[in-house]
Model the fold of this input.
Amino acid sequence: MKQHWVGFWGSAPAPVSRGFPAEIAKEVTFQCEMTAPVEGSAVRLSFSNRYGTEPVTFGPVRIRSVVGEGGFREVLFRGSSVCTLPAGGELCSDPVELTVAAGETLEVRWYLPGPACLSTGTWVLGPLQKKQFACGGDFTLAPELPLWERNRTDVYFFLCRADLFCAQTCHGVVAFGDSITAQSWPDWLLKAILREGKTGRTVVRRGIGGSRVLREYTNLSLRNYGQKGLDRFVRETRVPGADTVVVLHGINDLIHPGEDVYRPLDQLPSMEELVAGYRQYAAWAHDAGQKIYFCTLMPVRGWKTWDDTREILRLRLNDWLRSWKESDGIVDLDRLAADPRQPDCLRKEFDSGDHLHPSLEGAQQIGEEVFRVLFRN
Done:
């Protein structure tokens, strides 16, 4: 059977906030788990130092099946167990021969001898996101990270993608957006894929908290929001084997202006500017032979900058998305999440409490709705 590389796990590299959780790492071992929804015969890993201002050296890097036999396999980079990422650079590993079953969980560990500036990483949450680190040495071959040195983290440092060499019939879905996508709905989409036996599909998350379609931040306090969507879309959606993109992006363009001096009110976009941004996303996806689905923006009444002007713009944009013929489909999260008695508010069970981000139940429903739209045919 013919095989090709397909991305099956991913994060979107972003600048790490100063001091979160530390600026410098020395003798630290990071560990994370990732679920492979398709079977394959080899794995490769990609690391990014996109926002670093100096090189970062790490290694060894190792990978193993959480439940399988055979222990850790060493991950090499151009034949070497030690890799140096230049400032602003990215590097993909050599293939690691590893038999992977559909639904199998893999564990990856990477060691930073340091001192290394923790400048590039992504804050990600979800039921399938398990990541931690241990200080004090190279624990990449230890049965477990030592309990007395183990710490939990919500950030993936440097690791940005994992690919699987699998059947040519397998393809990936890229989930692109902001903090709502950096949270858990892509995990629930993956859970639905596994539950329903859609084993020819993978999910690669590309969400950055605070991200906007049209603008970005260069000041130190907000630079962790990353590049604007128009600057990162092509790079982050051109994932090996990915033939579908799901976009949930744009709410920050509406609610950020007016929050502080770094987000002045005059940055509130027009309807025409947002439409142009969405059209550009669609054109880029179609140029790459990918289908693209857009999610309508959910209600945000109760958020600190909410007002009638932003609500009218949100409703106009959603109506335009529902009638737009250039996308391959719409996931109508507005209708899914809105309180029937007060449509400019999230349903109570959908609201995490800040009136913007969905609760765990809400994220699960988003994942299920995306699954329904993608696979209803």
